[in-house]
Amino acid sequence: MAHHADSIERLINRLIKLPGIGRRSAERIVAYVLDSPLEEIRGLASSIMKVKETIRFCRICNNLSETEVCKICQDIQRRKDLICIVEKPGDVAVIEKSAKYNGTYHVLLGSISPLEGKGPADLKIDNLLLRLKQNNVKEVIIATDADTEGETTALYLTKLIKPSGIKLTRIGVGIPVGSNLEYSDPATLSKAMESRQEI
Ligand SMILES: [Zn+2]
Questions:
Q1: pLDDT tens column, 88-129
Q2: Average pLDDT of the residues of the chain
Q3: In this structure, are residues 109 and 62 in contact, taking their beta carbons and an 8 Å threshold?
Q4: In angstroms, what is the span from residue 147 Cα to ligand 1's centroid?
């Protein structure tokens, strides 16, 4: 039972596909669009397009980037011999907010989840092993989530990296069991990073 003009109904139907947006929120967004100056909405639409068209994965660490190599990998101040492994680009953003980490990252772009049929082959691991060899890496910090998938992934990575003799640590203290890294606040995360344990 659509009470709206066709174009509004079409926009609502697109908006409710967005994560966390139900029909009521979609209607509120439509009201915002109608109330806002044309330039504001043009800017919003073009920002969405710009992100979609220009953002790609960093060739080295798989983080989101506008350039072939991301800003963190390009930064000569960042330690290339310290690598923190995370599941998603959002995790990099969260750790960066804690502002205490001066190493580099490796984003797996997923986690091992037998229930969803996702195994090690679905993760970006190949270029990690190459980096470990090329950069004379001193320490690898495993910062996958504290849920089942994250722990399974951490275990897999431990078995994979441990034989190389590289120091391997796991963050965890303060991160509640079963939780996602991206919902941790900067203070908790920075403490978890400082008190990482060798495995
Ligand atoms: Zn990078």
A1: 999 999 899 886 889 999 999 999 998 889 899 889 988 898
A2: 89
A3: yes
A4: 25
Token pair for 163: 């034989």
52 alpha carbon – ligand 1 mean position (Å):
18
| Cα-to-centroid distance, 50 and ligand 1 (Å) | 20
pTM over cut 0.90: no
Dist. CA 62 → ligand 1 center (Å):
6
Using CA atoms, how far apart are residues 130 and 85, in angstroms rounded to an integer? 14
Task: Report d(CA 36, CA 32) in Å as an integer.
Answer: 6
Looking at residue 14, its pLDDT comes to 96
Distance CA 4, CA 26 (A): 12
Gap from CA of 120 to ligand 1 centroid (Å): 21
Burial (CB < 10 A; 0-12, 13-18, 19+), residue 123, is: buried
In the chain, the amino acid numbered 28 is R
What spacing in Å lies between the alpha carbon of 21 and ligand 1's midpoint?
Answer: 31
pLDDT tens, 42-65? Answer: 999 999 999 999 999 999 999 999
Cα–Cα distance measured from residue 138 to residue 167, given in angstroms and rounded to the nearest whole number: 6
